[in-house]
Amino acid sequence: MITYEELLQELFSHADEGYRAFHKKLLKDDTIAVIGVRIPVLRAIAKKYKGELQSLLAFPDEWYEVKFLKCAVASFLPYHELCAQIEGLVSLLDNWATCDGFAPGCIAKNKEDFLTYIDRFLADERVFVRRFALTTLLHFYVEAKYLPEVTERLRRVHAGEYYVSMAAAWLAAEIVIKFWNAGIAMLEENSLDPVTHNRAIRKACESLRLSAREKDALRALKRPVTA
User: Fold this and answer.
1) Tens of pLDDT along the chain (227 residues)?
2) Looking at the domain assignment, is residue 202 inside a domain?
3) CATH code at position 191
4) In a domain, 8, yes or no
């Protein structure tokens, strides 16, 4: 059973000062303490300790990498064990990187049931809990069967907060790319707020999966944004 001191020793042995400065800048939050361990290394460490989640959960949350590992190790859990831990896990989400990397594989086989959690998290006041709901839809639900559920939930999002808006835009863009007609119909409804609407168009236009003609059609749907 690993101790907190042993885990920190291992993490600091992989610290990269250049990456630490780069990643800390990307996180845009000076209150988050970062050691500077690259994501592939963190994922390898998570795999190494996938049977020690309870020990990890008891460790302090003073480092970005420790929180990331808690979520990464929890991603290996069977579905019912994940659900038993999910409230505590989402409380760890305080930045986009930990949030976006938290995609437990067991959700893929339990999509219907997990929609209840998505609805709860979409209504949460915490920014990165709402973002987690949207990124979970992005990771697991952008398929024909769940398209009505995904678009209906996107319509509920009133994303005044940057990280929620960007996640909603990312999800909307993926719908446009994979399901062109449904995506265009959603944009033509103007059901997203104007900022998120335009961000979705921009992200879709960045994709290599759309033609130049499709991108021109998307740009024609941009909406004016009032200050």
Assistant:
1) 899 999 999 999 999 999 999 999 999 999 999 999 999 999 999 999 999 999 999 999 999 999 999 999 999 999 999 999 999 999 999 999 999 999 999 999 999 999 999 999 999 999 999 999 999 999 999 999 999 999 999 988 876 899 999 999 999 999 999 999 999 999 999 999 999 999 999 999 999 999 999 999 999 999 998 76
2) yes
3) 1.25.40
4) yes
pTM over 0.85: yes
CA distance 217 to 143: 23
Closest to 171 measured CA to CA, from 187, 6, 160, 161: 187
82 inside domain: no
Statement to judge: residues 174 and 63 lie in one domain: no
Does a structural domain hold residue 81?
A: no
Any idea which residue has 């003609």 for tokens? 213
* Residue 216 lies in domain: 104-227
Rounded Cα–Cα distance for residues 74 and 54 (Å): 10
